[in-house]
Amino acid sequence: MSSSVIYKLNLESKNNIFIKREDLIPFSFGGNKARKAKLFFEEIDLLKADCVVTYGSGSSNHCRVVSNMCASKKLKCVIISPRETAHKTFNSQLMELFGAAIISVSVNEVHDTIKKTMKEIKEKGNNPYFIPGGGHGNIGTKAYVECYQEIQRWEKNNHIHFDYIFMASGTGTTQAGLVCGQLMQGDNRKIVGISIARKCPEGREVIIESIRRYLGDEFKDEEIQEKTNFIDDYILMGYGTNSNEIKKTIRDVMIDFGIPMDEIYTGKAFWGMNNYIIKNKIEDKNILFIHTGGTPLFFDYLKKEELL
Length: 308
Ligand SMILES: *Cc1c(COP(=O)(O)O)cnc(C)c1O
Prior knowledge:
The chain has helices at about 30-45, 60-70, 90-95, 110-125, 140-160, 175-185, 200-215, 220-225, 245-255, 265-280, 295-305, and strands spanning about 5-10, 15-20, 50-55, 75-80, 100-105, 130, 165-170, 190-195, 230, 285-290. The longest helix is centred in the middle third of the chain and has 21 residues, at about 140-160. It is globular, with a radius of gyration of 19 Å. The chain is α/β, with parallel strands linked by helices. It starts with 5 loop residues before the first strand and ends in a 5-residue tail after the last helix. It has a 6-stranded mixed beta sheet, with helices on both faces. Strands 5-4-3-6 form a 4-stranded parallel beta sheet, with helices on both faces. The structure holds pyridoxal-5'-phosphate. Pyridoxal-5'-phosphate binds near residues 33, 168, 174, 265 and 293.
């Protein structure tokens, strides 16, 4: 279910730009959260959990995919959601459609509410499973180690080597998985995460921690440091902030290639990548952009009439 297509974009560019369409993973509008959820639910099946608890905002792609998975498997789904970001979106409406129980609390109560909810469910004799927000953790990292291996197979079959891989970096689990894949193979290329909100050095530290947790002590610290490129030059004012340039990027990519992007993740990262390429004078390289999903966010953006 998880493999997704890679192809070249016919862009006017000094480089060859390819795209990997993780947004086309065939479950619930796909995206990196669908790839991660698949592995989490394998674990949930093994542990025979009867209820899933997770965390995320009203615009969370992760919560949409997890609540859809739960509904399809007839498992109860409880989503702890910060009140501050509880606006109505296509993702939040889908969570409702899937019958998820949403517990709205203020941001600083989230941690305690998760603990309390897990405890209450257990006391009722049920067997809950907790998925960290965004599918963070070793299982989420593993999903992107597998994605990295998929990219390598594609390269081998198509006799192409990607010099760069770019993607939107949020919790950094996606990037951590790709870097683990690279370290395990000893491949020479640059993986660049375009931060959508977090700043250096903290945002980068979280990724490095994820890599260490996944790989153990096998790799030297310098090696991990060297491979973790986390760019915070394009976050603007932080999560979800938009600009006329991002808007133009989203419009152009939709019109020219029929690919939906969004203002929070993929549109920002694609715009950031293009600027990074210019700033660093990158030429004649094979560059892969991983489209990490978020299609319902494209429609939120369209609905705001931002694009017209
Ligand atoms: C969650 C998300 C990301 C960020 O993924 P991380 O693994 O948290 O870094 C990027 N793009 C989209 C569309 C997402 O939903």
